[in-house]
Amino acid sequence: MGKLNIKLAFLLLLVNFTFKSSAQNNTILSTESLLVKTNTSVILTGETLYFQLYCLNKTNVFSDISEIAYVEIINDKKESVFKNKTSLKNGIGSGDYFIPTILKTGNYKLIAYTSWMLNNSQNNFFEKDFTIINPFQEHINMIIDSTSSEVNVSKNETGYTLLFLDKEKYSKREKVSLVIPKTLDRGNYFLNIRKIGLLPTDTNSETSNTAINLIQEIKILPETRGEIITGYITAKVANSNLDSKVVTLSIPGKNFIFKTTKTDSNGKFLFLIDKQTSTSDCYVQLSELDKENYAIVLDKTPSPDLSNLVFTKTTSISAKHLKEIQERSLATQVENVYFSQKKDSLIETTNPDFFFQPTEKKYNLDDFQRFRTFKETIIEIVIELNFKDYNQVPSLYLRDSRYNIIQSPEPCLVLVDGLQIQDINALLNYNTYQIESISVVDRPYCYGPKIFNGIVSIVTKNKDFATIYTDKNVLKTSILRPEPAKVYFEPKYETSSNLTRIPDYRHQLLWKPNIVFKNNDMTIPFYTSDISGDYQISLEGITETGKYVHLYKTFKTE
């Protein structure tokens, strides 16, 4: 049995007793833990905090249970100021957080967890201390400290050969060639290259949860095949049945998501989202004739109990740090001014196919004579469809009556940019020149718990129909979605003349997550900036056997 099938069987096993939680539902299940590494432990507003996540099992080998992790920034009042959902692939993920100027100077914690970890009664999240400094804050509590706060670079924490550079000193904007030796074990690593400063840093301020087997009460399912969205329906009319109601979820857009599910006897439902998009707007509705008799509520995303979270770290910022803070803040502001010329690149979704493909017939309307109204367009162009009233509302049916299922007189499933439309009146007055294409599945289609009498998928030119659509029976909300993967900006001065006149005030020269080594020497080039000083190269990661690796190298820019 393949890895995916094993995970599916595991999920189905858990679903069998989900929503039936009781004291008897205790079982011994394998646990997992998270290890999070960041590019720094002291950061200024206007800078970006980068992080790498490793999801590990009890032997510190990459876990294959969870595909979603949560990262939060917590202030000293135990309030979450940032929450991120990160995709995990084979137990590995990465992300970033731009530190806004609304955050005050102080001590913060980064916490990370998976849904599966929250079933543990203890040790259910990773925590790491770090400090945010807001140079624009009027009053920063400065502790006058006469002791030295020079950064002490730790020794290599492995017996591996050191990293190699072609020389020890470089000019500004000069190309550097970093050679990573082939003696490095196979695994996943990240590279962090940044300027060494006087601000005190703490590389040992993290607390990793210990992965031990506990007797757990299963309250939260593991997100083992993607994101899990749960909720429930409530009856507006007394004695209404909550069981077996079909609920649909739409995340509209270019690469839309459409899911269907069915409620249990208590009205609870669950969606599994296994497709990556960056859109957070979500539309949930009942695909039922009596939908107006019910209200829909989505559950909040799971979070750990922070009541026992303790802030013990104090940051010493002495008067001698002021100059460094001012210079670093100025450099950050200059870099942000030129952000448009130094943008990171988003990695597009590799599988944009929709659930009904390739069974559909597609009509690109620009290939036909345009008609003024939607009804004329359907009648004159889309030969598989016809209009007929359903529940006193004009609806779309398959023209071939053989495919209109006798047991279910409902019309076709109609999607516009992925949003289910149950009242076609919303389209009758829509400007058809804004419609790009109409795709039709001209036969019954089983999707989730329901058989639809055909599918009509309408795509608009701007993919924005949802922004003008209103329906009192549709719950419109915003859900937390995984951030899209990025390729972080790296200047290439040898090949690009566009950057010649643009200042380069980077303190963070390179952040490269998810590096995979396969027992070969690897050369990674990067460029120095306009900021002179000492820099540190840190290569950290986890081998396939669960061993933690940390290599470092320093160099100077003059």
UniProtKB/TrEMBL annotation:
Annotated signal sequence range: 1-23
Keyword terms, alphabetized: Signal
Gene3D superfamilies referenced in this protein's UniProt entry, alphabetically: 2.60.40.1930
Protein name, UniProt field: TonB-dependent Receptor Plug Domain
